[in-house]
């Protein structure tokens, strides 16, 4: 990563993490003050706080970075959904925020997370407060009882919900040994994936089972991080440059590193996102059939990604854009930055800020 990339990433994380202690304190105060009140009141305030913080982060990771995000397929609706996606970057968790911009849906987003993420300073304890579900790797009792109980509680919430799950379980990289090798659920047929890892079906099955009564659809999302390269190629030209009067060939290279830091460093230029909205009634109700449905979904993802990276074929379906809401992001950023500046402007405020770091960040 270049020096400029390091500076950009440091600038982004300084702003985001710098506000985190203030956000944590306000969120905890909301949980305490609204505890004796009807639950929907505290949830509404919490979702608004989370929405404003995610809009603040958009300033850095979408607007400041200048990354070009292209959407294909179905536009999200104002509904409850289970969101599944391939997982190859720490940017993946933020894309539902951008995807739901037109619906102001970011406050509704919850995640199914690995239990080790509880240890994250500030965010680990807050995610649980917000309604995210932690699962322990290899602990069936945790998965069957704790997850199902939590999801049953979530399904009774008045507010709408986007539950995000990454069935691969961990970030995928094509150079990892046997990254795509696995067997089909129950069928015992070997599969070699070139662009995705084999999905872990049990978490998805339990998630869908717990939320089936409240979920309206499954959003099957495929994400591709690309570095667009255009070069002169008269033999296979597919795009015309009107300024130079040359025919240009566009190729989509998979970057070596997919991360938020790489975005700030300009390591890749575009993110392609395909959304396939599947009504919940179209997803099988039988557990084994659900698992096979998920495997088939990841087979399709592998084909789509392989066509993009190897053949330059962009995703199918209509291309659409989100509305420009940068004013909203900058407004939220101004509010949170002002609160941070106010905290640091006096001696008492600085002491309180340090105490918040010690309380929430250690």
Explain how this protein is built:
Helix content is 44%, strand content 19%. With 362 residues, it is of the alpha/beta class. Strand 3, helix 4 and strand 4 form a beta-alpha-beta unit. About 7% of the residues have low confidence. Strands 1, 2, 3, 4, 5, 8, 9, 10, 11 and 12 form a ten-stranded mixed β-sheet that branches. It has a two-stranded antiparallel sheet with strand order 6-7.
Topology of this structure?
Layout: H1 3-33, H2 39-64, E1 68-73, E2 81-85, H3 95-99, E3 109-114, H4 123-130, E4 133-135, H5 140-155, E5 162-165, E6 181-183, E7 190-192, H6 201-211, E8 217-232, E9 239-241, E10 246-253, H7 260-265, E11 270-279, H8 287-311, E12 319-320, H9 326-344, H10 347-360
Parallel strand pairs: 1-11, 2-5, 2-8, 3-4, 3-5
Antiparallel strand pairs: 1-12, 6-7, 8-10, 8-11, 9-10
Helix pairs in contact: 1-2, 1-9, 1-10, 2-9, 5-6, 6-8
> What is the N-to-C succession of helices and strands?
HHEEHEHEHEEEHEEEHEHEHH
- Main sheet makeup: 10 strands, mixed
- By DSSP, the count of extended strands is 12
The amount of beta strand, in percent, is 15-25%
Helix content: 40-55%
Q: What overall geometry do the principal axes of the alpha carbons give?
A: globular
The chain-level mean pLDDT equals: 80
Distance between the termini: 29 Å
Structural class: alpha/beta
Q: Please compute the radius of gyration using only Cα atoms.
A: 22 Å
Number of helices: 10
Low-confidence stretches: 180-188, 234-249
